[in-house]
């Protein structure tokens, strides 16, 4: 309830985000037998509220929000800046995720600038997101992963502009109106 209230009170112009995030997080937290971790992927231009929504999610789950020792933030260009160090980054990142989920199964990991993250590093995260009961003796089924990216932002803008041209309200946009165009755009983006 706190998440929904916070999003309704503090987030403006992002009706789809509110609806999707509340449904996903509430459903996940209420599921006592999740088959895999929760993974949310938030897309849009800089300034559209991706980090803000991540902060609201963290504040709704943890008393100290982003300052909780169970919330871990990574920025691709800050934490993984050198392409020639990808193997080292992979090992460090996997070890970091494994160690923190071992301490707190309900850990939250936020990855910013996914569109700038090296593909090999993204691949190293994938096993933690899948349907494994245990991976190296650790269950990741209660963890939450939030991925933030500018990839696909132009498609989101295009859909919103098309609605405006047709005289339709922004609030008329449904997830299905954006989801397919966004998926294709992100998948075909060479930098994504």
UniProtKB/TrEMBL annotation:
Give the membrane topology, semicolon-separated if more than one.
Peripheral membrane protein
Biological process terms from the Gene Ontology for this record are: nuclear membrane organization; protein localization to nucleus
Q: Name one GO cellular component term.
A: growth cone
Q: Kindly give the InterPro entries that the UniProt entry links to this protein.
A: ClpA/B, P-loop_NTPase, Torsin
**Keyword annotations from UniProtKB, A to Z:** Synapse
Similarity comment text for this entry: Belongs to the ClpA/ClpB family. Torsin subfamily.
Subcellular locations according to the entry: Cell projection, Growth cone; Nucleus membrane; Synapse
UniProt keyword DNA-binding present: no
Q: What domain of life is recorded for the organism?
A: Eukaryota
Its name, as the record gives it, is Torsin-1A
* Origin species: Dryobates pubescens
Quaternary structure, from the entry: Homohexamer. Interacts with TOR1B; the interaction may be specific of neural tissues. Interacts (ATP-bound) with TOR1AIP1 and TOR1AIP2; the interactions induce ATPase activity. Interacts with KLHL14; preferentially when ATP-free. Interacts with KLC1 (via TPR repeats); the interaction associates TOR1A with the kinesin oligomeric complex. Interacts with COPS4; the interaction associates TOR1A with the CSN complex. Interacts with SNAPIN; the interaction is direct and associates SNAPIN with the CSN complex. Interacts with STON2.
Q: Name one GO molecular function term.
A: ATP binding
Q: What is its main location?
A: other
